[in-house]
Design a protein that fits this description.
Helix content is 27%, strand content 31%. By secondary structure, it is α+β, with helices and mostly antiparallel strands. It has one domain (24-175): tt1808, chain A (Alpha-Beta Complex), CATH 3.90.1570. The N and C termini lie far apart (38 Å).
Length: 176
């Protein structure tokens, strides 16, 4: 884990090695920011949990895949929080968002996204959003039924139940 703290950019620890993550483009970054912003407003209004933007580090015990950390594009966490607020959060987020960038649409990327989603669920994440920035669709995967996502498109109101109870967002706003 110490190596992860030495990384100079966004990275995750998988199989004992640092996996650097590429910066994202304008649209995926704006979508991720809006999700985090909405989550943060919700957390402040309810006094429950914390929302995080891209580049937040979550550490977990080694998973079957070898993964030991996550850095979702947007996330929501309810604790426990680290004693040192400068450190990564110990544990998986309740809710994680992965926003697709330009290179996230081929067969290899699909496999990687599915594998990471499986890792999230193994670590304890309750809901994972797979946000497709090309077709402007949000696929909501839930730990209790990981093979059958709810699909939200423009005109719909999406949620992250049961991970973020009561939080609702208009899909149009995220892609606006």
């Amino acid at each position: 884990m110490a190596d992860l703290y030495q990384s100079t950019g966004k990275a995750e620890l998988v199989g004992g090695r640092i996996v650097e993550l590429m910066p994202t483009g304008r649209k995926p970054n704006r979508v991720a920011f809006r999700i985090a912003r909405s989550l943060d407003d919700f957390a402040l209004e309810t006094g429950k949990g914390e929302a995080y933007t891209d580049n937040m580090g979550f550490t977990v015990s080694m998973l079957a895949s070898g993964r030991e950390s996550f850095s979702p594009d947007a996330s929501y966490y309810t604790g426990p929080f680290p004693a040192n607020p400068m450190k990564y959060v110990p544990g998986a987020p309740r809710f994680a968002t992965e926003v697709r960038s330009e290179g996230d649409y081929d067969a290899d990327a699909e496999r990687e996204i599915a594998n990471k989603r499986q890792d999230y669920f193994e670590a304890g994440t309750v809901v994972v959003w797979d946000v497709d920035t090309k077709s402007e669709v949000i696929r909501v995967y839930r730990k209790d039924d990981p093979e059958n996502p709810a699909i939200y498109k423009r005109g719909d109101v999406a949620d992250a139940e049961p991970a973020v109870p009561g939080w609702r967002v208009e899909v149009d706003w995220h892609f606006g």
